[in-house]
UniProtKB/TrEMBL annotation:
The keyword Lipid metabolism does not apply. PROSITE patterns: PPM_1 (PS01032), PPM_2 (PS51746). SMART domains: PP2Cc. The keyword Magnesium applies. Keywords: Hydrolase, Magnesium, Manganese, Metal-binding, Protein phosphatase. It comes from the Eukaryota. Its EC number is 3.1.3.16. It catalyses: O-phospho-L-seryl-[protein] + H2O = L-seryl-[protein] + phosphate; O-phospho-L-threonyl-[protein] + H2O = L-threonyl-[protein] + phosphate. This is protein-serine/threonine phosphatase. It comes from Citrus sinensis. Its cofactor is Mn(2+); Mg(2+). One of its GO terms (molecular function) is metal ion binding.
Length: 316
């Protein structure tokens, strides 16, 4: 066996509502005393809106590392659900690859759902995915956006989506981000951002938009053309000249990373990177950790859809 391979041993997917009887680990914060009433409140609001699940597998590289993953997604206070998530494990050119993504739609759910159905499939089909992963990611993100926009020509209402993704390939972790969903890693209890939000008031993003002939103005928040509160996204054909789907990519060695959190801005709008890591660093069950973060974001007043994926590594 090639030691650089990521090898899948077992997958144990589950699907459960947040309001089930599964108990939180005892290492959770003191807010767990209030968890049951909050669960009841969430369930009463919409029992079909919140789901969670997870699984586990093994990485084989320079050392063996077991990883587990969990996800939770909740419609929250929004009237419709525009978030999608993806947890995929697939063999590519004889090598197992794990892919995790959170897609936060705006103007409807069409774009986010399209990304869930096509982004990793397109990436795993790229001829250079294994040997030149970064180039493949950039090319596939752009091509997937073009394909989506081509299929959207008959739509009257514009729509778009962010994409925060993590690819596990051997000992490597590649994070690719478009928009203001976010990926944060924990190293020895410290929160390490693996993506930087694409906001219109970010100086380099504002310069790029203005050089392309666009403008950024304040309209309750900073917006491209007075319309869109993110500066990079898939879709958004009416603003495509300024709102690109080119990802920013960061690569990390898995060694030393305890876990990563991938979440939509429904979580990050009310929970800081540091708080998110501290909140779940002692919760060894990745699914329980994702549920904990969803519940906390909701309790802190998040008014958006909330979706979260946690991937936890056990290096040996």
């Amino acid at each position: 066996m090639n030691d650089s391979k990521l090898t899948k041993i077992t997958i144990t997917p589950t699907a459960a509502a947040l309001a089930d009887s599964k108990a939180e680990p005892s290492a959770s914060s003191s807010r767990d005393a209030d968890a049951k009433p909050l669960d009841v409140m969430i369930a009463a609001r919409d029992p079909d809106a919140l789901f969670s699940g997870g699984g586990m597998s093994f990485l084989t590289g320079s050392r063996t590392a077991k990883f587990s993953y969990g996800y939770s997604t909740f419609k929250g206070k929004r009237s419709s659900m525009e978030d999608f998530y993806e947890t995929s494990l697939s063999e590519v050119d004889g090598q197992m690859v794990a892919f995790f993504g959170v897609y936060d739609g705006h103007g409807g759910s069409r774009t986010a759902e399209y990304l869930k159905n096509h982004l990793f499939k397109n990436l795993s089909s790229h001829p250079d995915f294994i040997k030149d992963t970064k180039t493949a990611v950039v090319e596939v993100f752009k091509k997937t956006d073009e394909n989506y926009l081509s299929e959207e020509k008959g739509q009257h209402k514009d729509a778009g989506s962010t994409a925060s993704t993590a690819v596990l390939l051997g000992d490597r972790l590649l994070v690719a981000n478009v928009g203001d969903s976010r990926v944060v890693a924990s190293r020895a209890g410290s929160a390490i951002p693996l993506s930087i939000d694409h906001k219109p008031d970010r100086s380099d993003e504002r310069q790029r938009i203005e050089e392309a002939g666009g403008f950024v103005i304040w309209a309750g928040t900073w917006r491209v053309g007075g319309v869109l509160a993110v500066s990079r996204a898939f879709g958004d054909r009416l603003l495509k000249q300024y709102v690109v789907a080119e990802p920013e990519i960061q690569e990390e060695e898995i060694d030393g990373v305890d876990f990563i959190i991938i979440a939509s801005d429904g979580l990050w709008n009310v929970i800081s990177n540091r708080d998110a890591v501290a909140m779940v660093e002692h919760i060894t069950d990745a699914e329980a950790a994702s549920r904990k973060l969803i519940k906390e974001a909701y309790a802190r007043g998040s008014s958006d859809n909330i979706t979260c994926v946690v991937v936890r590594f056990e290096n040996s």
